[in-house]
Amino acid sequence: MSNFLKVVRNGRAPNAEQKGSYTWRDKLVAFEKGKGKFVSVDAFCQNLLVDCNDLARDDICFEMVVHDYDEQCEGVEARWFVRVDKLCGYRALAHFVGCSDKKSKFWVNVLSDEVFHLANANMIDENMERLAYAPPSNVIPEYTENVKQYIDNCIEKEIVGTQSISINYQNMRENLHKPRFRIGQRLELLHYTNSTLIRVARVVETCGRRLMVRVMQADYPGDIDDEALEEDRQFENSKPAPYWIDEGSFLIFPVGFAAVNEYELQAKRDYKEHSRRVAEAILKGEEPDYHPDDIKFSDLKKDPVNMEHWDKLKKGQKLEVIDPLAQEFKLLKVATILKFLPTPGYIIVGIDGENMIEESVPLHISAPFMYPVGYAKEYNLQLEMPDNYKKKKFNWDTYLEEEKADKMPIELFRPFPSEERLAKFKVGMHLEAADMCENHYICPATITSIHGRIINVNFDGWESDFDEVYDVE
């Protein structure tokens, strides 16, 4: 079994790991033995603040800190060259150049802050006074007689002409930890148990693309009582788990969204007045007078709308959706376009049934929850019929005729991913998935079935009852 390299700069405490956080060690051990597959980094849309796809390639080389000489070489950092043998996501099974035997292999995260592009040491320390190229100590017998010749030979034979990570790698890695949003900024947040209501919330923590958002007492009209703290995860100091979402989540909107779209807003009077003025400016095509803490419309940009296609969209058209506010994400539901919103690209979609209005949600046309009529049948997914539908079996043609409704046009849905992209997802592959219900968890998971652009994911160690389906985007 290869080592899991401890990547810690000398004199600095190791990064604190979340207590009980899963390390993937068992799956990586199996992978080395030829068992197990992992979804590649380039299979996903951008899942970090910057695009790191170029990093995750087999046979790529980079420089890395060698800690074998920390005690003997105070003030000088030793580095050596590393070649990637295989990749599992951002984890690389690698070896130091000159140490190619199986026992010398190790696992390292390619986003580690002790990974550098080739020739980085020469670029930042031309005289090599603070940095030095030195092979790890386990190859000492091979080079002790002539260190310089050994190093020169390795560079000439193993490094020159090889593929390296980008020369911009260090800047890119630094940008991974520069969130676009800052703590204290305010936005508008869809109430996750009452989707007809929007509330004011604050960013209270950031982690890459992920934001912890909270409805704060200072922004809330009235007191937040103990019962609410017990049940509502979006509230400040709530007892349930914290509320984490991706910065592209359908749940968050810029300041003024509710006012622009005449959506019910739960906020204090001064905020309502402020958001009304923001909305008036936007509707006039003027630049709003935002508060410094406001998250603006330009901060939460959506994909542009094809107006030629948009004109084909009509109120009352039917579609299939993954209900984004459900407690289970295992099936598709029958849905209807209820309303067009003034903000370009936004519609109100309701789940067909007795509580269609109460179970409606504002979605951008590019949201990864909407699918054309017949998708579930074509790709072998369960389609839940409306709760007030009296017939034992559901048939779309019959239902459309009964409802005197049309299908949402196919060209309004997101383009289907290429075959090459979809081929990167295979049954049995491992990945990390953000739980759609308990959204503070990112869990080790395995693909158990594929349904077109939707994958069914099982959370490792959990029964299939807890499986969830995800669009690959």
Automatic annotation (TrEMBL):
One MF term in the entry's GO annotations: chromatin binding
InterPro entries: Mbt (IPR004092), PcG_chromatin_remod_factors (IPR050548)
Keywords assigned: Repeat
One of the GO BP terms on file: negative regulation of DNA-templated transcription
MBT repeat residue intervals: 141-268, 269-386, 394-473
Repeat listed as a keyword: yes
Pfam families linked: MBT
Gene Ontology CC annotation, any one: nucleus
PANTHER family, per the entry: LD05287P, POLYCOMB GROUP PROTEIN
Protein name: Uncharacterized protein
Natural source organism: Caenorhabditis brenneri
